[in-house]
Each structure stands twice: as structure tokens, then as C-alpha cells.
Amino acid sequence: MVEWDIRKLQILRTLRERGTVTATAEALRMTPSAVSQQLTNLAKQIGVPLLEAQGRRVRLTDAARLVLRHAEAVFEQLERADAELAAHRHGELGEVRVGAFSTAVPALVVPAVRALRESAPGVVVRVREAEAAEAYELLAAGEVDLALSLAAQAPTVGDARFTRLELLADPLDVALPAGHDLAHARGLRLADLAGEEWIFGGSGPWSDITRGACEAAGFSPSQGHAAAGWTAILAMVEAGMGVALVPRMAAVTRDGVVMRELGEQRPVRHVVAAARKGGEDAPAVGRVLTALRETASRTHEGRPMP
Q: Do residues 153 and 207 make contact, with C-beta atoms less than 8 angstroms apart?
């Protein structure tokens, strides 16, 4: 029977994710030669070739992919073993590292941390602001325990590495200059703003969300200005330079800006959390997830409840 080496399987798994020996070495804090040697030894141990040349790079063989398919179940079970050992050793004590996108930090993570100080003072939360791509790299590398992102940027449900958990449906409101003709109109619909100049990012998820919401309302938005930060976007709205969709979690009160709801057909963005498969069972991680869910539930469709 083959003597399996978990560390070597982790190296093979990382190579599949990172694509090159050099990138794998950087992720695992090894030298490229050490990565190559470990994978060569693993191939000898199990008796099948794991890598094949592809120009100046290497790619995984079908045998390597077969091995990793079975290894995912092993990694998941090891995560569960770690979780049970943590429960046995520490009970309600533990440290949880959270990677979260910028607007989720003040709206979800900080209130959850405050609540945990009362309900579970032994659980320490370390927060790292990170957008989706970085957050999921950190999660895969074991450098954070939870990653928060928009659902559109999260790994697919079929990704064997992660468990995905829904947190919040965050409505999008429209920001109008205080003097706009429709600032106080009854029954405002997104389609009523089809002729406006819009302010949103030049590319990326927020551009996609704005364009998608407007197109669902029957028009293509005319982009008057491009900005990625909410402070800049709302400053331009206040100056009468255009209108913008703003997630309720991110809204900042400004005297010259009127935030309007868009009725039952308003667009929303979905916020999710992800943990490594099996890692969500760790008691401290579970505590943090509960606090995040309770924070989200205290938000009535994205608005703090009285």
C-alpha cells in the first residue's frame, strides 16, 4: 500500500492552484528546487508520473488530478479533525482571522467583533481588509479562516476547497443631488433615471453591478464619470455631476445627497462568507459566523433596524 505524504500532497495541490513551480514555491515559502524535489519524490512513492513538460512550464498529468480528487476528501477530513481538536483543547477560546472587502469591515465585521467581546471574550478576531481575489488566495493558503466577498466574486458552489455561506442581501439605493427634480418623487424607479449621467467604476464588479441593474431596468447607463471609492462618487453626486447606485452598507450621509429606495424591484448585491471545507466546524470560527449572521439579521434588508 502506498505511504501517502500529506505535505507533498499539499505542494501538488498548490501547484494546481498557482500554475507554476515558482509561484508554488513563493506561496509555500519554499525554494523552487525544493518544490520540484518533493514532487519528484511523491511521484516515486506512488509510482505514477505527476508532471509533464509543456514548453518551459509543467502541467499536471491525469494521474495527478486523480490523486488530488481523492486528496480533497483527506484535506476536508483533516480540517474537521483540527476543528474537533480545537474544541477539545480550547472550548470557547481561539483566534479567527477574517479577510473582508472594504465596505464589509465597518458594516458587518466591526459590529460582529463588538458583539463577540460581550458573548465570547475568549474569541479573538484578526481583521484583514482584502478584496475578493486576495481574500480567497489568503483563505486557500491558510492565512485567513474566513473570507467575505460579494457572491459574484466568490468561488463557485462546486469548488471542493471551500464552504460558502450566505450572509446578506444588500439593497442598492440611488444617490441623487439634493436639488434633483426626482430627489423627492413618489414611487421612483430605476428606469426613471435612464437619461441621467451615471457615476461608477470604469471596470470591475461595481461596474458590472451598475450596468447589470440598469440593463435589467431596460436601459444602458451613460457613464459620465468613473470612480471606485464611495467618497469620490458621493462628492460628485453632491456636486450635481451625475447619479449613482450605492449599496446601503456603503452609504455615507452627505448634506447635498439624497438617498432613495427603488421599490420592490430594487437591485441587490449578495454578500457571502467562505471557509475552507470543514473549517467552518471549528468552534471559534462558528462563533464568528454566528456573530456575522446576527449582525446581518439586525439589518432589515440592509438598513439597521430600530
A: no
